[in-house]
Amino acid sequence: MTTIHWTNLVVETQFATELTLTGLRRLCSVPTEPELVDFGSDELNYALHVGMYSYSSGLERLCKLAIACHGYGNTGKFPKLKNYSHRIGKLFDAVEALTPIGLGASMHEAEYLVRPVDSLDPDLTITIERFANGAGRYEHLDSLWNDNAQVNTYNEWCALAARASVSEEVRELISIRNGMAHAIQTELIQADLETTGQMVMDDLVLPTFEPSIGVALSLFRKVRWVSTILDTATNTPAAGLPMLGDVVSRNFIHTSTDFFNYHIAGIADKEVVVDELIAANERTSGRATEVDDEHVDGW
Questions:
Q1: Helix (H, G, I), strand (E, B), or coil: what is residue 133?
Q2: pLDDT value of position 39
Q3: Against a cut of 0.85, is the pTM above it?
Q4: What are the φ/ψ torsions at residue 34 (nearest 5 degrees)?
Q5: Which of 73-77, 255-259, 290-294 has the highest mean pLDDT?
Q6: How far apart are CA 128 and CA 124, in angstroms?
């Protein structure tokens, strides 16, 4: 393998990983209740297309990387991938048909080698493929000149979100994330840094919606499976391939709860964060009590 091939594989994997992660983060911010859409349509509704565009592109690339690296490991040549186009379902079938050739996944990762069975399928995969093929990516532009164009991605997403669910652990993490945003904003105001810290707060106060989080975590599990296949395909010195699992594993080879914890909610250590939030709340309550006492004394 040439140095150029090595570099291109690593860069492409980094590119696909960041695209996918960006997409999943944005998809968690898609409102699915009519009143939320009406209230925040200018700021929130477009998140679906940002998220789907990034996610579907990154997922497609990761699938093609897994197929390419597996082919190289078996034959010493990279297979042509153009015929797969943007057909996500066909790519999933091709990845599922791959026989592991590397050193294998660790014990706790072995279950991720199996194509996930999701209660939202086949509708979830159909929605991803429809978007990736162009019907969703260009639906708003197409509607400008084609009266028969269907602008349907949002309706499909809402139908999926109505069937999705999240665990109690994820609900707790959502609550902690909201508490983090409130505590940091309160401390910035107290320190007269509200304007200085506005850029930090923009990320923290970006709303997430539980139904969309449920769909996003189903999408995550598909990426985790493809990433684990890619890891095993490159985890053998004999193939001469870069160990691309080093790129994807830090983001995607986790439980759904841990993925949401680290990469969506941004919580490094839940127990420590909870302790800090309790302390911050006590400080806030203490300041409020002091202000009330001053008012009483002044009266």
A1: coil
A2: 44
A3: yes
A4: -50, -40
A5: 255-259
A6: 6
Rounded distance between C-alpha atoms, residue 77 and residue 64, angstroms: 14
What is each CA distance from 210 to 43, 94, 104, 183, in whole angstroms? 18, 32, 35, 21
Question: Which string of b and e fits 49-81 if b means at least 16 CB within 10 Å?
Answer: bbbbbbbbbbbbbbbbbbbbbbbbbeeeeebeb
Burial-class residue 279 by CB neighbours within 10 Å (0-12, 13-18, 19+). Answer: exposed
Assess whether pLDDT exceeds 50 at residue 10.
Answer: yes
Q: Tell me the C-alpha distance between 126 and 173, whole Å.
A: 30
Could you report the per-residue pLDDT of 23-73, keeping only the tens digit for each?
Answer: 999 999 998 876 555 544 555 668 899 999 999 999 999 999 999 999 998
C-alpha distance from residue 276 to each of 137, 183, 187, 268 (Å): 43, 9, 12, 12
Residues 123 and 160: beta-carbon distance below 8 Å: yes
Three-class HEC string of 207-274:
CCCHHHHHHHHHHHHHHHHHHHHHHHHHCCHHHCCCCCHHHHHHHHCCCHHHHHHHHHCCCCCHHHHH
